[in-house]
């Protein structure tokens, strides 16, 4: 009887817990104007690929990277939290040879994207997906 009660309690607790599925949310175009602007420097804009097949695409106003069978938009993740009235903990710094972007990407973690320019055709990721990337 105690085991049955414990099992039913666990099922109830799990079924009432909040779900987080921001990968399934798509926010595009002018649906929502974020007050946080992702603006990679000109020198890093373009598509960069590692020897492992990881890819970062730096646009004028977004950073997109491959994840499993799809892609993740950093700008969409920031917008998601802003729409929910949750601080996305957005930090962006850029210099002539580095670009750093941090933002909340789940209720419990931040995504840290840190890049250092090696040359006009190579960058190094020093946090998420560490390694050398070559410009396509």
- Strand-residue proportion: 35-45%
Taken together, the total number of domains comes to 1
Largest sheet: 9 strands, antiparallel
Total of helices: 2
User: Largest beta sheet: what is the strand line-up?
Assistant: 4-3-2-1-9-8-7-6-5
Report low-confidence residues grouped into runs of 5 or more.
2-29
Order of helices and strands: HEEEEHEEEEE
What kind of oligomer do you see?
single chain
Please summarize what this structure is.
The protein is of the alpha+beta class and 136 residues long. The chain is built from two helices and nine strands, in the order αββββαβββββ.
Topology of this protein?
Elements: H1 2-16, E1 46-50, E2 55-59, E3 62-67, E4 70-73, H2 74-83, E5 91-94, E6 98-106, E7 109-117, E8 122-125, E9 131-135
Question: Can you describe this structure?
Answer:
The chain has about 140 residues and is α+β, with helices and mostly antiparallel strands. It has one domain (about 40-135). The protein has helices at about 1-15, 75-85; strands spanning about 45-50, 55-60, 60-65, 70-75, 90-95, 100-105, 110-115, 120-125, 130-135. A hairpin with a 3-residue loop joins strand 5 (about 90-95) and strand 6. The longest helix is centred in the N-terminal third of the chain and has 15 residues, at about 1-15. The N and C termini lie far apart (about 65 Å). Mean pLDDT is about 85; it is low at about 1-30.
Short key terms for the protein model shown above:
globular, disordered N terminus, nine-stranded antiparallel beta sheet, single chain, 2 helices, 136 residues, alpha+beta
